[in-house]
């Protein structure tokens, strides 16, 4: 088996560096291929972009390394060529709080209060097409769930857990539902925890992190969206602010992270569309999902490997479809007819099939505990659409067209129950600042952007000290 060091070595060879042995030596590069900054940011998703923008606001020089050809991570928008209208099929909304308003104001984002397309909900068992009455069709009532959330207020914005971890938080969500009579709320919680596969088996604390008090406030009408329903505009505006400080379609292929106070303890070799570049920085902010396959080129030590090897995650897919044969004006929710699982379907499965703001264009979110190919997911959705056409009494016989497909895996990166009980989050907190490196992102805080921004904002004084 290859070590992380040998993997980085091989990657460097593949990149065509002039001398792999001297890959961190500025003398091996032309001056145009050396970038010197106060802080290097790996990952241009929600937290990485926020961190970079606000480091610049603090008069620090930055560079962002992002593997996609744009910023924004799981933010996905689509513009219809015929009408010019846009719709979001990834991140839907942002909490209307002061931090969001300040960030949007600085970027120049025009935003409005969140509203969903007017539609009638049909609850159906997606395995059979059988309609299921009385589940998921009315406004959700979370009163009992909110009473439980109130016991752990810090979970809305952090992983600050009491130790030992309360036994209730370690219960499977299924057992927690039974213990606190949450049967009538469980299905709606499942829908709100989109992307979290095998929900009933998960520790309850993981569910509380996703369906938090702040999340519910946003979902119940306190969210904002961009004026044109195009959340990628946020990151286009951020890219304008960053300019050449954002390296898109770029990846780190080797790194050296020193704990010393030398001028540039962070050195990254980055493969860019114009060839390898050497980044020299005083500090490093890592915002990508911290699984080993992502972090292999980042010079991990034994402690980091030990902790980051414990993460588990779900696989999450978002897609846009037209030519569905479904009647316009509807939203179909996946509801199991049998109440033994609180009507929550087993995964892999879609959560819903819902029409967007663009008539005739539908979006679907789909989760799986193990990776699936795009072909497998699309085939399952196509079969599901055939059953739902019968549910809706549609006589149309069509072949759906998948307009967009996005794999957002790894999603909901969390430790296993035993690691959680044994102080996992206290241990990873101890990594912040070590070897001149800080971490942010969904695994460290939440998948909700304002929580990520708040978490990242609290790191900035340490990074800039």
From TrEMBL:
The lineage of its organism: Eukaryota, Fungi, Dikarya, Ascomycota, Pezizomycotina. This is Beta-cyclopiazonate dehydrogenase. The keyword Lyase does not apply. Residues 1-16 form the signal peptide. The keyword Membrane does not apply. Keywords: Signal.
